[in-house]
Protein: ABC transporter ATP-binding protein
Amino acid sequence: MKDIRRLIAYMARYRGHVALNIFFNLLYVLTSFFSIALVAPFVSVLFGLVEETGPLPAFRLDPDVLMQYAYHYIGMFQAQHGIMSGLLLVSVAFVLATLISNVFRYFAFYNLAYVRSGMLRDLRQNFYSHVMSLPLSYFSEKKKGDLLSRVNMDIPDVEWAIVASLQGIIMEPLYVVMFAIGLFALDYKLTLLVLVAFPVILYVIGKVGSRLKSRSEKVQAMLGQMVSMVEEGINGIRIIKSFNLIDVVGKNFENYNKQYVRALNGVYRRRDLSSPLTEILLVAVTMGVLGFGGTRVLSGQMSPDLFVLYILLLIKIISPSKHVVTSFYSVQKGRAALGRIQQVIDEIPGEEESPEALAKKEFLSDIRYRDVSFHYSDSETMVLQHVNLKIEKGKTYALVGASGAGKTTMVDLLSRFYDVSEGSISIDGVDIRDLKLEDLRDLVGTVGQHPFVWHDTVANNIRFGMENVSMDEVMEAAKKANAHDFIMALPQGYDTVLGDAGMTVSGGQRQRITIARAILKNAPVLVLDEATSALDAESEVLVQEALSKLMEGRTSIVIAHRLSTIRNADHIVVFEKGRIVEEGCHQELLAKGGHYAHYVNLQNL
Structure:
């Protein structure tokens, strides 16, 4: 029921269009009923089953009275103009009634389109916005392919659930109820016979669909795993080919694909069984009505024309009844899809901003780590333990240590990708948890080990997220990053579109583009996380020159394994197992003969 309430909550934003959809569907049902009701008087008068009688009774909403009026006027028209004219009259009336009813049906679907597209837009936007607010730890635990599956597969399933819920769960029952009222008005005894069979039909529907939701959830989870396998295969294609693993990964995918197909077939079999079962039961009911109703006609308890109308109304109920059943399964599948989407939306955001958060546009004096300890939410192992560090404005600080010592975590905490478990981090004496996130991250520029570029032009990659930036400013930033010359050599210069993940340029060129982006951002605090470790010697020289220009006049925090790149840093901080074990400049630490000196000797500096 929680999923249904959520679906209704999304629909509530478009209640005007939902109301119009219901209104036009109601008009469609009424006009459809009227068009079918024309058949009985036409059959009666045309074949002489009923002769015109004396004066008409007072008009009232009673089936017998309505029929007498219809017999009277159609009979008069037929007597004056002949049988063919009577046939033409009823045929035209039937066509007009059908035309009007389908116009109403079109307007019902017209309004439904706004509900479908609007709800999907809201759901997709909520999903994406919330994913962007989740902590980095969430993405280390979850597979990207599963998230992509929820966007590409589950949200369209919710769309079908919307259609099914409005048309099959709300509108089709309205159709059935309206025609059922007509059946009761024609012959309540015959209709009671029909109603006796409905509990049996509902029981069959319930038994068939009892496990559909859980099976759908399993199938959708398996699909997410398959998307992840495809994504991993594409990302690792170079390694797969170099290790001759094409057959191995292909076999793994084939086996999982077979499991998915078996599970999917189980869902399809269960869902597709409902429609034929329902039709068989409804046809059996119809045949029972024909037998029982036929005896009532022969005994004079029911007129032939009303019996013909009764059968037509009963037949018209069969199709919407089947749609109700089909819609029930679509809603069940949609509920499973909505549940998977809401699992992500219900995740607690990792970056919460206080309503009283302070604005801060300048970095004035220092950054301080006070007794900072940190562990990830899913682990009790401390990544940082009681770290105390003062970073003064305008100086360069280098963080050194073995992999996993906590260096990258230090800068991640500064940008609030994670929050400290104990202690505090402050900028100019203000705890960063009390600052506006946007302002905090505007103060910090980052150049990482793995440069990221978008599938967009070079110019747009450099000025990404920055408004009112002129082309001259973009080019000036590129020149400072030693990127202008290679950019101008590209086919369309700054308008060249970089391929997926920037594969059309080299790693060093991608890095210089990201440095140009950092130069243009002009953040007062700069974080360099292994910015040259993955480059060849020539690219490293060019990137290092660009970094030197970028670091001028800024407070820099440099993480490096190549100690040659940080020997001139103002202050070097050595980490070991989450703790600071040494601090000082290059010469001071060498003289100590401790951890730093050991690293220097290992690299033959």
Remarks:
- The first helix runs from residue 2 to 12.
- Strands lie at 366-374, 384-392, 396-401, 422-427, 430-431, 444-447, 525-529, 555-559, 571-576, 579-584.
